[in-house]
Hints:
Structural class: alpha/beta
Strand order of the largest sheet: 6-7-8-3-9-10
Protein name: ABC-2 type transport system ATP-binding protein
Bound molecules: adenosine-5'-triphosphate
Number of helices: 11
Shape: globular
Family: Belongs to the ABC transporter superfamily.
Keywords: ATP-binding, Nucleotide-binding, Transport
CATH architecture of the largest domain: 3-Layer(aba) Sandwich
GO molecular function: ATP binding
Low-confidence stretches: none
CATH topology of the largest domain: Rossmann fold
Pfam families: ABC_tran
Number of domains: 2
Amino acid sequence: MKVTFKDISKQYKGKYALKDFSSELENGIYGLLGANGAGKTTLINIFVGILKSDKGQVLMNDVDVRHLGIDFLSHIGYLPQYPQFYKNFEVMDFLRYMCVLKDIPKEQGEKRAKELLDIVNLSDASNKKIGALSGGMRQRVGIVQAMLNDPDILILDEPTAGLDPQERIRFRNLITKFSENRIVLLATHIVSDVEYIANQVLLLKAGQLLKQNSPQALAREIEGKVWMVTVTDETMEEKLNHFHISNMMRDHDGIHLRVIDDEKPDPHAVNIEPNLEDVFLYYSGERERW
Length: 290
Ligand SMILES: Nc1ncnc2c1ncn2[C@@H]1O[C@H](COP(=O)(O)OP(=O)(O)OP(=O)(O)O)[C@@H](O)[C@H]1O
């Protein structure tokens, strides 16, 4: 399976939400990483056909998806940013309903729903009302409905919003489990959602694709630009005013700043190994004061 985005643009009131976005995806997990408002949902909405682009094409195996119509949708599983569930539906009834919408034959859908509920550890909840589930359980129902048609392309828009750390880890493991022989596109602004599971990260800023590479390669690209500097309360201000700081930690030796900059920020600064959060900040961060 191959998906190609070709020069996609979308404007709202003369302002670009997405500008000349081009990328190619093959089987694997892709983290679409960008700050709030970077254009992630716009791209996904264009991809799944909810939104029309002003310009550009989405191709599946080199065919424009607009020519494929319903056939394209049968290849897609989609979990929106704010999934709306019927709270009075029981889990299994909701999944049966989704099978009807997706035109999945009854017996096949029933079997698939039960298998998926088992994989996400929700078999015991299949007769519970959706309104009675925790946020994490509801997200798992969301991913089950996205997987009902055994899609080649799984699209998840901010899927870990509202999950606690343990649920977040479980969810990541689940995505990895489901990623075999599929394209998974996972939009998020939370770096740790994709740092360990994405084969490639697409870094989006103000509607434009800044970078596409593996997390490791992206981190290597900024080697030599991440520094550790120890300061005092008196000398800290100057650093905060001049540099991107990705972390601050205070202990009995002083305040340890993780600084991101092309130049050595202090004669005593030492280089440290970059991570994906540093990459995100290096390319898309504004210097913010709190
Ligand atoms: N219907 C709309 N009308 C006007 N502007 C919009 C509309 N939808 C999105 N935008 C603007 O387009 C830009 C991209 O928004 P988008 O929702 O795609 O970003 P995002 O990366 O998904 O952000 P978030 O993480 O907050 O969901 C933003 O500046 C947003 O304000």
